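quick one, 75 residues, struct below
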Amino acid sequence: MTNENVNIWIWLQNGKIVKAILNKDLGTLKIYNENDTLILKRTGLKIIEIKEIEKCIIRYGAKKLDKHAEPFKFL
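---
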């Protein structure tokens, strides 16, 4: 995922790792649990809605993964 408009967020919720992938170009949100099982998918989101979702995710203490970082380096 080297797309400039794709952001990957990781956070702990109820003691479990959660991952969110937000794509501004496609207007999609995908949330996965620690087993990489898709638990929520939203499509047709506007850019303003994606920004609001990112603000909510940040309140959970999420960390945005660097596009060039190795997976799970933040742990």
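The mean pLDDT is 87.
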